[in-house]
Amino acid sequence: MQGRLWARAESRVEHLVHTARAVLLAPTIWALYLAGRSGLYIAIVLVGLDVIATALDVLVEPESRKEIGGVPRTELALHIAATVFHVGAIGLAFVAAVSGSPPLRPDLVALVANSMVVVSLGAAVHHIALAVCGMLPLRRLQETQVP
User: Fold this and answer.
1) Separation CA 122–CA 140 (nearest Å)
2) Rounded to the nearest 5°, which phi and psi values hold at 71?
């Protein structure tokens, strides 16, 4: 049950925060890796929104997971590793965008970045679908209750 945050009423806000981060990822990758220097300003705004969503995630997570014993240690380790790679990728992209130097293999950068955009769009659609599915039982329950 721990892996199904979207299905738990207590964890819906946390899942919506995860959904927001998933939706922000594709345009962030595009802005950082594919839009050139002009995408830098867009990327700054998107990364700022992602930082806000991350802070919200940290704030809502303890209450969201209280009934299921908190966040498992393995998931905490995964969060740390993912954050290191996330920050590293963003940092490298910012440095590359600010330097103005073209990448050594622009074809490889474009291939990897486009692949990341496609995969992150899939993750965003998946999160949105789960959020909608998680809300459906609440809607049905509310419709059947007499005021």
Assistant:
1) 28
2) -85, 125
Assigned token pair, 136: 């459906």
The count of domains in the chain is 1
Alpha-carbon distance of 94 to 63, in angstroms, equals 35
Query: Is residue 28 within 8 Å of residue 94, measured between CB atoms?
Result: no
Residue range(s) defining the domain that contains residue 36: 5-144
Query: How far apart are alpha carbons 98 and 108 in whole angstroms?
Result: 20
Neighbours of 70 (CB within 10 A): 14
pLDDT tens per residue, range 90-137 = 888 788 777 877 777 888 888 888 888 898 899 889 889 888 887 765
- The radius of gyration of the chain from alpha carbons, rounded to an integer in Å, stands at 18
The number of beta carbons lying within 10 Å of the beta carbon of residue 4 is: 12
Give the integer Cα–Cα distance in Å for 76 and 97.
Answer: 31
* In contact, 51 and 111? CB cutoff 8 Å: no
**pTM for this structure?**
0.74
CA distance 133 to 141: 13
DSSP secondary structure code for residue 101 in this structure: P
With tokens 């995860």, the residue in question is: 18
